[in-house]
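Lecture notes, continued. The same structure-token format from the folding unit now serves as the input rather than the output. Read the line below as a description of shape only.
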């Protein structure tokens, strides 16, 4: 998922220091077609920067998330594992197949309407909606039927 701004420009625009670790994380997320957790990012980062450690990954992901450059996503009800992606993507949601683990991304105006209603009715400032859908994907539905 490539963006038009370079990692350096994104860091500058967010008022963040430009470090080799932050640049690397932004490049890895930009090049990824999937969803990466901190450990996957750590292993990928070690290919280019063998001296990097997992705590550096977590610390920089926190900085990048607070700066609005990276978004945390959860795909399970218990929020047991965080996944990360560039925050430049449109607000979207995920369906996880409980049988094969496939993740399907989707957008819907219905959730935007719920957010708008919630803001209007309760005067809240919603930063992120964390909604997890689970079930069987089209490939697994036939296998689950007797």
């Amino acid at each position: 998922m490539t963006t038009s701004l370079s990692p350096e420009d994104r860091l500058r625009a967010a008022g963040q220091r430009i470090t080799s670790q932050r640049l690397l994380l932004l490049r890895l997320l930009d090049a990824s077609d999937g969803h990466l957790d901190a450990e996957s990012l750590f292993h990928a980062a070690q290919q280019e920067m063998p001296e990097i450690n997992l705590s550096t990954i977590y610390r920089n992901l926190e900085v990048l998330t607070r700066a609005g450059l990276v978004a945390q996503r959860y795909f399970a009800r218990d929020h047991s594992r965080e996944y990360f992606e560039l925050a430049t993507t449109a607000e979207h949601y995920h369906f996880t197949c409980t049988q094969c683990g496939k993740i399907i991304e989707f957008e819907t105006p219905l959730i935007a309407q719920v957010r708008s209603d919630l803001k209007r009715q309760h005067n809240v400032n919603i930063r992120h909606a964390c909604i997890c859908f689970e079930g069987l994907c089209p490939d697994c539905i036939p296998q689950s039927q007797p």
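Point for the exam: Residues 60 and 66 are 10 Å apart (CA to CA).
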